[in-house]
Amino acid sequence: MKKTDPQPVGFPQISRRRFVTGMAAGAALLGMPGSLTAGAPRTNPAPQTLRGNQFDLSVNYLPVNFTGRDRTAVAVNGGVPAPILRWKEGQTVTLNVTNHLAHDTSIHWHGLILPSNMDGVPGLSFNGIKPGETFTYQFPVNQSGTYWYHSHSDFQEQQGHYGAIVIDPAEPDPVAYDRDYVVMLTDWSDESPHDIYARLKKEGHYYNRRRRTAGDLWRDIREKGVAQTWREREMWNDMRMSDRDISDVTGYTYTYLMNGQTPDANWTALFRRGEKVRLRFINGSAMSIFDIRIPGLKMTVVASDGQNIEPVTVDEFRIGVAETYDVVVEPAGDHAYTLFAQTIDRSGYARGTLTADPSLRAEVPAMDYAPVLGHRDMGMGHGSHGGHNMNKAAGKMDHSGHGDMSGMDHSQHGADMDGMDHSQHGSTMDGMDHSQHKADMKGYSLHGGRPELGGMQGVWHTNDLGRAGHGSNSPIVHLPSEHGYGVDMRSEMPANGLHDPGIGLRDHAERYGRRVLNYSDIRNLTPTLDRREPTRELQLHLTGNMHRYMWSMNGIKFNDAEPLVLKYGERIRITLVNDTMMTHPIHLHGMWSELETGDAEYIPRKHTILVQPGSKVSYLVTADAYGRWAYHCHLLYHMPGMFREVRVV
Amino acid sequence: MKLKTLVFFCSAFVTSQVLAQDAMDHQGHGAHESHNTGATTAAGDEPKGESGHGAHKGHSMPQSGEHHGHHGDMQVPAAANLEHAPDQPDHVMDHEVLLTKVTIDQLEVREHEGSALEGSAWFGSDRNKLWLKTEVEREEGSTENAELQALYSRAIAPYWDLQVGVRHDFQLEDGDSKNWGAIGFNGLAPYFFEVDSALFVSDDGDTALRLEAEYELLFTQQWILSPEVEANFYGQDDPDTNTGSGLSDVEAGLRLRYEFTPQFAPYIGVNYEKKFGNTADFLRAEGESTGETTWVVGLHAWF
């Protein structure tokens, strides 16, 4: 437990009282009984559980009060979260969903493999559910594990329209446990989601209350000297970007909920002495990525995105928006434990208690230091992230949109470019010089010769793909469409996101002695089903402009994009290159995203993949589901642009 | 006196907002259409053309039009956090919103019965916007200058907008009103300098150049010091408006604001104005001063 300098660059720890933790504090001030027992006042009941295979769900408005202010949530069957749906693998479920809102609604069954017309995405799967109408979903349940459901209409996810799905396996469960709980993490704001979105559009850093200050600069100069500080600041200043830009929306407006309970309301899970408890963590947030730990307890991760994995024991793990992780813990009977979920930017936390004795509760730990972005988060290679890697390459990095690509781009591709399918048409690497891409566009348009395969909307590699399970070794190609006003950064040397626990967690092992889960730790419990090699590879870049608050893929936003077309039955690789400094959870509907962790025998199947800033990650997809599917960033306010239709024909 | 000043500013602002509303009706649709074509161009027009994707308008959501309607018969909740702008569709991925931002950069009272307003408003999409900018200055009880610009603004680079339009200088006691054509760049320069630059050509051939730059230094997340400088150049002498050719005037300010919220921040500061060259000569001839430093108290806000 070595303690090092608590702040790499150093700025005041935000007090954990700075964000709204709920009502109980206010109640205490008013002279209410101070003893926070299990009977503490709850304004919002915990979600009920519905079992069976026939369900009537009604989407309605619900008065709520999480912060002391009366607001209206969008609820299912009068609950926020919506009821936990408990299904059995092998059954067919029927769900009659009635819309009592003034607006369209929908339910998407997140992570479920089902027919496209049951997927619940308005405009792709169906027309949405009109006010007053009932839509009947019916589909067979051919999987087990922890999933969730939520609205795919408007910004209703932010307003409370989310709930858990637990599917009990048909065969005996390989995971041994005595008791299980759903732990759903969400972010609540008293503001309307449309206001939040508009504020971000008008001032991208609106919710960032950790911007660099003069004090930070002074501290840097004292610690590192003027010259070193200047060099470190130079690139950020030149690029007009903030190294404190971790979350778009923060605890400044959010109150973080665990199963609908504020930190002060303290959702409490009870167990009997000696029991093994399975906790099914679901991140149902609109915008918040959480780091979860239970001080005093090791967590054995047994499932990821609903799929069983080889158990791996950790102290802490990150859960991206829309991911699920199941962990098994063996708490001691005479202790209380805090379930602690701090946000990636440390601007707030959700909290609950695990205890055998309702009269006990554990201390709530202080939040860890807040992360600061470094060079690797800008896709500038593996240099130390303290910023000591500043060199000419940094200065040359193309960020102005005026094509200062000299050097950076070509060096790394060189001969590898043969692997791109346009090379067969005789175009050369010169085609990569974007500063003159008008002339060389022809090199790319040859992709368009296969519009049925996605045309120009992505780079398709067909040669030298590398073995299934081992990821991509194709060159990084930035399409000309990435050179518009909507893209403020391109990763020239993206790091491999696989072994990276993510910003803010990278030093937790040495600093706090915690073992932190990363993607390379995850191995499927059962052998890979589809052993084929990928026949082609789609390289898709996650792009955006934080200043204008625009998000896109390959610089093209959904409204302007062609569908990505896959042939039924084919096995492809998708390589996501993150050309932004945000961590994006990318969700493919209808088909598994089989994460290439380096072990081809036990490839884990996920529905949502976290892509680290300035990094790349690869996964395999078997296009075994006909129809139109959504493929998008699951950060709610990135969805308007960072979204594609995937069409399997 | 102060009150009258404020009323004047407010009415000027209301006027500009009305203008904005007017313009919205045209600009709104224009923005939508040209937005699509514009974005397509930026996203690589050649490839699309060659691969036969040219006519892809509306391909994204064939049925989406049906969902944009609202349902008057349903009871709409009054809760503020459920407000739903009428132009916003119910499909998240379709959210191509048109927004309006009104910024009161400076609304301030100055020493010696002075006051000033500098503000702007924009309406539009990511790429295309209509901008209105206004500057009004009063000294010793009389309006020294008042202008309004209406500009079409187009995003041309990650941090830069090209702005083209007209500027109107209102008729004041000693001088005529004047109309200018305007072209300039507005954006964020490296090192986080907010820059606004414009070249003006009047209907009688006069020329002018304005350069503005502003910086924000955060002491804390709430206390923000904002240095700012503006310089005006003219291509000719114009005794009517007391402007001389070459560098005419420089205004520099230093304002310390406290952001109660990011949208509402009162400030105190100091403002320095200096006239140069022939402009200074004109003023000297009229017995007026050519330089002044004043304390200011004001409000910075946007919504």
Q: Work out the number of β strands of chain A.
A: 33
Helix content of chain B: 10-25%
Structural class call of chain A reads mainly beta
Determine Rg of chain A (CA atoms, Å). 24 Å
The radius of gyration computed from the alpha-carbon positions of chain B, rounded to a whole number of angstroms, is: 22 Å
- Biggest chain-to-chain interface with counts: A-B, 86 and 65 residues
Terminal residue distance of chain B = 27 Å
- Strand sequence of the main sheet of chain B, in spatial order? 1-2-3-4-5-6-7-8-10-11-12-13
Beta content of chain A comes to 25-35%
Task: Provide keyphrases for this structure.
heterodimer, A: 649 residues, mainly beta, eight-stranded mixed β-sheet, six-stranded mixed β-sheet, 30% strand, disordered N terminus, B: 303 residues, alpha+beta, 3 helices
Summarize the topology.
The complex is a heterodimer of chains A (about 650) and B (about 300).
Chain A: H1 24-29, E1 49-51, E2 54-64, E3 71-76, E4 82-88, E5 92-99, E6 108-110, E7 134-140, E8 145-150, E9 162-168, E10 179-189, H2 193-202, H3 214-239, E11 254-258, E12 267-270, E13 277-283, E14 290-293, E15 299-304, E16 307-314, E17 317-319, E18 324-329, E19 336-343, E20 349-355, H4 392-396, H5 408-413, H6 437-445, E21 459-461, E22 495-496, H7 508-512, E23 536-545, E24 550-553, E25 564-566, E26 571-578, E27 584-588, E28 593-595, E29 605-606, E30 608-611, E31 615-622, E32 627-633, E33 643-648
Chain B: H1 2-42, H2 45-50, E1 99-110, E2 114-124, E3 128-139, E4 142-157, E5 160-169, E6 178-189, E7 193-202, E8 207-214, E9 217-218, E10 223-234, E11 246-258, E12 264-275, H3 277-285, E13 291-302
Antiparallel strand pairs in B: 1-2, 1-13, 2-3, 3-4, 4-5, 5-6, 6-7, 7-8, 8-10, 9-10, 10-11, 11-12, 12-13
Short description:
The complex is a heterodimer of chains A (649) and B (303). By secondary structure, chain A is mostly beta strands.
